[in-house]
Write a structure and sequence with these properties.
The complex is a heterotrimer of chains A (124), B (340) and C (544).
Chain A (H helix, E strand, L loop, with lengths): L3 H15 L1 H6 L22 H22 L6 E3 L2 E3 L3 H8 L3 H11 L6 H4 L6
Antiparallel strand pairs in A: 1-2
Chain B lengths: L3 H17 L6 H29 L30 H14 L1 H4 L2 E6 L3 E6 L2 H19 L10 H10 L11 H19 L1 H6 L2 H23 L6 H12 L11 H16 L7 H7 L28 H14 L15
Antiparallel strand pairs in B: 1-2
Helix pairs in contact in B: 1-9, 1-11, 2-11, 5-7, 7-9, 9-11
Chain C lengths: L5 H10 L31 H8 L25 H15 L1 H9 L11 H6 L6 H16 L1 H6 L10 H11 L7 H5 L6 H14 L5 H13 L7 H19 L14 E4 L10 H15 L3 E2 L16 H18 L3 E4 L4 H14 L25 E3 H10 L4 E2 L9 E4 L2 H5 L5 H10 L3 E2 L25 H7 L1 H14 L3 E4 L2 H14 L4 E4 H8 E2 L18
Parallel strand pairs in C: 1-2, 1-3, 3-4, 6-7, 6-8, 8-9
Antiparallel strand pairs in C: 5-10
The chains are: A mainly alpha (124), B mainly alpha (340), C mainly alpha (544).
């Protein structure tokens, strides 16, 4: 006996399963996130491509440092400038909107950082 | 040789992707052309293999019964281990495929002096396999966040759950640690268990090395070699691939291309290797058949009607005189002129 | 051939350098050619027997010749390699199981120490996975893309006479017991592999006489033992005389009687030699006690089927007699005696090969009225199912004290356990005929039962050491209950077991004797009108 009906049904399920992204997106790649950049500042604590790849690691280091040493002075020297290790007082000063900046990429790539478990997100 | 050749092969693959992806213009090959090719080989090859299997019939109903079969109504039967109908078979297969039930039975034997042969329950292989396969599955599903836009709730939930320990940033996934652990345990078992060591072939080590390298490059990319890892660019590429409008925006780090290339190799290798046990486990006649061959006739398409038993007539011709003498009934009496 | 002493063999199993005791061979298995020497192989088929079989319509068993496995030259036909590869291709097309089992193995090693041959010999090639690799390596080389491209690197191997010799060695060191298949995560069944190996070997005329002579006998005389109708009836008549002497019951069995309700078929070993004879006496007495309208057949006088150990064609040919005879005699259904591999054939193959049995009726016990709907299509019932039903319905009376001399344990035969699921019926019967019986350790019973070590036509004397080794796991478990509970009887539902376990017990646990379940039933059975003497040993008691 061949059971070809069951096997073909199984194969169809398999193919649908592994090609699920094709059916799900149905040809629509969606919009690439557009982040709203600060209007009055042109420079971040690190170059843009580095920030894109490593901002989470930087923030993590800052968080640990501040919590362990309670040192909130302007003690980070990057390039010529000194910054305070602070999400709210440094980053969010320029990138004022969580929705228009942080969430754009985070939502796109399904990243849910737990910054906002403790910090109060700006009211928007 | 059987350890080193596959290792060398995997190292060579890494080098190909590393060097190749840095050549200007080759990103399109590694990021777009090869993934399409690999996926086509995977889906096409997988279906081809299954269809090749399906072309051969299952001539006989040969389930392995691992419990009391259906018999007299008052005898308690084991519906899972000696299934009698399709729904019981489905239940048996479910446990086999999702919980590796047969491995759960495993024992380890030793020959002690006496001689005394002992059998102790041994579930290490079950545990290692469960760790490996389930972390692999979750990792694959997690990766769907790169291919689906918008990301469905189930994928985000899975990803959130996997990183719920909130260690580091980006958060560490438990399955990343688990798959590495699982692979090391399975690899270690191949080396340490003397029987498995002896039976292992190069084709057993290659997938282990390959999947290990995939996991390792994934981890390096996420946590350590983040240079040039722009997740948005990567997702744009991934979504572009599955919507057939691939674009490579910006420079993506080599580690990504190495990771992707190794995955392509795994996909292309899959249908032509022992990894096809993914499909085969569904089709194993000793597991996916009901033990009801005395209740329902199973048909063998190549059953040869020309094979007939040595006929009764021929038998009686051989022994008629003696049968009559013994008073055994016969169809034809002896000829009147009996031969002494 | 003198068999090695027990203590020597004991030490060899536990301490000898083998993969079981911890030493790993230095060379890869591909580089270890087999060596045939007296005692490690069963004698090849006699040429006249093979020639006779090849002449039979419907089956082909070519290349009859005189040869010895010890010779370098096996006198293979010129195109043997082509024959083997084509034969493999043909079987891949016919059996999905073969394709799946060739492709899916991941060499996880779960089966390795499950095989009684491996446990007893420690020979790496007796690990079920390795036995399959012997064939799989050729399959890879010839039939897979990776093997064609990469050869040895992809686990392939060229087909050589060395490989063929290896097949002959290890296809006849497997009893198709299916224990490995219980533990395999993909259900890979080495029995299927061994069957294919044996079929391939038969294509080039390499088989063993202990399988093929019974096959030839069965074809011509109706039974493996080669009993002519007069010998067959004579033996049963002798047993009837014994029964009368022991119990005062006069039993009058009939042979080849048309119009009987039931045709009874049991392995011919039961009418041929002890201790099967006592089981046969049990059948005769039981059927007399319940007044069953049944007949024996001298034409279908074999329950067993060594065709199962030869090829599917031969199996079909031999098995065909059961339905042919049932049809000729016009019986309503068939009752089958105690036998292991016979029941694999009846349960899993008979209806498919030789059905549909539309000339028979769904079996219904004339005594209890129970309809055996589990045999609704095949129309053949196992004696233990039949007896258990009689007991449940209080149709037979037992006096357990008549079995006072018996303290038993029960051996599940491979095939009823793993190819049928017949586990609790014999146990139910034992509960009713014995005061005391004990199970062997749990990893050695039911679906995990160990083979007697001599099934699939390997119960031949020239490989006695091998048999004692492969039977050791079973014997060892019996030894365990002997030490613990002073068990003196090993009960079973298999004719091959009755012969081979007797030899095995004599070697490893001489205090234990072997008995069929129906013998124990016969011992305890209270029959109306009996004049039973004090029988110290039940139906085995010698009365003068």
């Amino acid at each position: 006996m061949y059971d070809s009906g069951k096997i073909i049904a199984g194969l169809i399920i398999f193919v649908l399963f592994v090609t699920f992204p094709i059916w799900y997106n149905h040809g629509d790649a969606g919009a690439v996130p557009k982040v709203e950049l600060p209007k009055d500042t042109k420079e971040c604590v690190l170059p843009a491509d580095q920030m894109r790849a490593e901002h989470m690691q930087l923030l993590n280091v800052w968080r640990d440092e501040v919590l362990r040493t309670a040192d909130r002075s302007f003690n980070v020297k990057i390039g010529d400038k000194k910054y305070q290790m602070s999400l709210m007082n440094t980053c969010m000063q320029c990138h004022t909107s969580k929705k228009k900046f942080c969430d754009q990429c985070h939502d796109y790539t399904s990243v849910s950082p737990y910054c906002w478990d403790c910090h109060l997100a700006p009211v928007e | 040789m059987k350890y080193t050749f596959p290792l060398a092969a995997v190292i060579a693959l890494v080098l190909i992707a590393w060097i190749g992806s840095q050549i200007p213009g080759m990103q399109y090959l590694f990021g777009v052309a090869l993934p399409y090719l690999a996926m086509a080989l995977f889906v096409g090859g997988f279906c081809y293999r299954v269809i090749q299997w399906a072309k051969s019939p299952v001539p006989f109903r040969i389930p392995t019964t691992c419990g009391q079969g259906y018999s007299l109504p008052w005898i308690k039967r084991d519906k899972l281990e000696a299934p009698n109908n399709t729904s019981e078979v489905v239940a048996r297969m479910f446990l086999e495929i999702f919980l590796f039930r047969s491995l759960w039975r495993n024992t380890k034997s030793e020959a002690l002096s006496g001689p005394k042969i002992t059998y102790e329950s041994s579930r290490w292989l079950w545990l290692f396999s469960i760790i490996f396969h389930y972390s692999f599955l979750i990792i694959v599903l997690r990766h769907m966040r790169m291919f689906l836009e918008p990301v469905p709730f189930l994928v985000s939930a899975l990803e959130y759950g996997d990183g719920i320990m909130q260690i580091g940033a980006p958060v560490m996934y438990m399955t990343d640690a688990a798959i590495i652990l699982g692979l090391l345990l399975l690899f270690g078992r191949r080396l340490v268990n003397r029987q498995v060591r002896y039976i292992s072939l190069a084709n057993d080590y290659f997938p282990l090395y390959l999947i290990f390298s995939i996991a390792l490059t994934g981890i390096l990319m996420r946590f350590f070699l983040r240079d040039g890892i722009d997740v948005v660019a990567i997702k744009t590429l991934a979504v572009g691939l599955v919507t057939f409008q691939p674009t490579i925006s910006g420079d993506i780090g080599s580690i990504f291309y190495i990771h992707l290339f190794l995955v392509c190799c795994l996909l292309a290798y899959f249908p032509f290797s022992k990894l096809m046990h993914l499909g085969g486990v569904f089709l194993s006649p000793t597991r996916n058949m009901a033990n009801n061959s005395r209740m329902r006739r199973h048909i063998n398409p190549w059953n040869d009607p020309k094979i007939k038993p040595h006929s009764y007539a021929g038998y009686e011709d051989d022994f008629r005189a003696d049968m009559i003498e013994q008073g055994i009934p016969v169809e034809k009496e002896l000829p009147t002129k009996a031969d002494d | 051939m003198a068999v090695v002493k027990v203590d020597t063999l004991s030490r060899s199993v536990a301490e000898g350098p083998s993969l079981m005791t911890g030493s790993i061979p230095r060379r890869d298995w591909q580089d270890m050619p087999v060596q045939f020497k007296p005692g490690n192989y069963a004698y090849p088929t006699k040429s006249e027997i093979l020639a006779y079989l090849d002449s039979q319509p419907g089956i082909s068993l070519p290349n009859a010749r005189d040869w010895s496995p010890e010779d370098d030259d096996w006198k293979l036909p010129e195109d043997w390699k082509e024959t083997i590869i084509n034969g493999l291709a043909e079987r891949l097309d016919k059996f999905r199981s073969l394709k799946i089992f060739m492709d899916c193995c991941v060499r996880c090693g779960a089966c390795a120490d499950k095989c009684h041959f491996f446990l007893g010999t420690g020979d790496p090639k007796n690990m079920p996975v390795m036995r399959a690799e012997l064939l799989r390596s050729i399959y890879r080389q010839e039939f897979t893309l990776a093997g064609k491209l990469l050869g040895k690197m992809a686990g392939g191997r060229k087909m050589t006479t060395g490989v063929l010799k290896e097949w002959f060695m290890y296809a006849y060191q497997c009893t198709e017991c299916r224990r490995c298949s219980v533990f395999c995560p993909y259900g890979i069944d080495t029995a299927e592999i061994t069957m294919m190996l044996r079929e391939l070997l038969h294509l080039v005329g390499c088989g063993i006489n202990w399988a093929m002579e019974p096959v030839a006998n069965s074809n011509r005389t109706g039974n493996h033992m080669g009993l002519t109708p007069q010998a067959y009836k004579g033996n049963v008549d002798f047993l009837c005389e014994d029964i009368e002497g022991l119990t005062g019951i006069k039993v009058n069995p009939t042979f080849n009687r048309k119009g009987a309700e039931v045709l009874f078929i049991t392995p011919s070993a039961d009418v041929f030699a002890e201790p099967g004879l006592f089981t046969c006496m049990g059948y005769l007495l039981l059927f007399e006690a319940i007044g069953l309208d049944y007949t024996w057949s001298t034409y279908a006088s074999e329950g067993g089927n060594f065709g199962l150990f030869t090829s599917n064609e031969v199996m079909k040919k031999l098995n065909g007699k059961m339905y042919a005879e049932a049809k000729r005699l016009g019986v309503k259904w068939i009752l089958g005696g105690e036998c292991g591999h016979m029941w694999r054939v009846v349960h899993q193959y008979m209806d498919t090969m030789n059905g549909p049995a539309d000339f028979l009726e769904v079996p219904k016990s004339p005594i209890t009225g129970t309809v055996f709907d589990n045999a609704a299509s095949t129309k053949m019932v196992h004696i233990s199912e039949f007896t258990a039903d009689l007991i449940k319905n209080n149709k037979i009376k037992f006096d357990k004290s008549r079995n006072a001399h018996v303290k038993a344990t029960f051996h599940d035969s491979c095939n009823p356990a793993r190819a049928m699921g017949l586990l609790d019926e014999p146990r139910y019967i034992l509960d009713h005929v014995l005061d005391e019986w004990h199970e062997m350790p749990e990893n050695t019973i039911r679906e995990k039962t160990f083979c007697c070590g001599s099934g699939t036509a390997l119960n031949t004397d020239e490989i006695m050491e091998l048999r004692m080794r492969s039977g050791l796991p079973r014997a060892n478990a019996v030894k365990h209950v002997f030490d613990k509970h002073a068990v003196n009887t090993l009960a079973c539902v298999c004719a091959i077991d009755r012969a081979t376990l007797t030899t095995l017990m004599d070697y490893w646990v001489p205090e234990v004797t072997v008995a069929g379940i129906t013998e124990l039933v016969g011992n305890a059975l209270v029959v109306e009108g009996e004049k039973r003497q004090e029988l110290d040993e039940g139906l085995r008691t010698l009365v003068f």
